[in-house]
Amino acid sequence: MYQTLLTSLEEQIFIITINRPDKLNAINNMVMSELSAVIDEVYHNAEIRSAIITGAGPKAFVAGADISEFEGLTIEEGKKLAQKGQDVFQKIEDCPKPVVAAVNGFALGGGHELAMACHFRIASENAKFGQPEVNLGLIPGYGGTQRLVQLIGKGCAIEMMITGNMIDANTALQLNLVNYVVPQNELLNRAKSILAIANSKAPLAISKCIEAANAVFNETKNGYQVEMTGFGECFATEDMKEGTAAFLEKRKAVFKGK
User: Fold this and answer.
1) pLDDT tens digits, residue range 197-209?
2) What pTM was computed for the model?
3) Catalytic one among 47, 113, 186, 219?
4) Dihedral angle, C-alpha 84, 208, 214, 151, nearest 10 °
């Protein structure tokens, strides 16, 4: 179905693997288009409860954008390229189902921006993170200037962007850029184990948690209002009735996402 992605569904966890290992999984126009399509699949396929994005091979999650496609672009073409990337990555961030980045190796430039668009990140011990665009006379264009500041703070973010320096997995953990650092052979299993827990919870409540958390950084929204609305709307769901009944009856809840 996809030329640059591999997909599999395991226990309602959709695993998306960017599959250009000979190019260190660099994002070209086709990868970006297929990422948009595969995230639409996550949104609309009821069999999918959560997703993992990772890269093929042991060396790279995504080592950046395919720079060969940048040559000769005009100002307007550069803006359109950035707009497309921002739109796709915003779709990932806004996904009502949890999307986790399993970062195996290099996550640089557009790859780092992709990882940051996911709801959280787990890194293998050999992971490296960076925004090296200044080495090309560029800046991050797929939302990196915004999400990096949100995740690690202005000072550390600006240092990473103006030096182009990479940080290792343990530094990323200290900066709260990633939630966990694990051996590479445990990376996918750690992501699956966390999502298996999430998949046992109420799907509608999970989507509202994501929506309210994202509202913190959206200047057009009042996050407290989003939270209050979401909290209230939960009371109309079958899941809320099931969850409270199960609690009172001292049994495990069975949620249906209704």
Assistant:
1) 999 999 999 999 9
2) 0.95
3) 113
4) -110
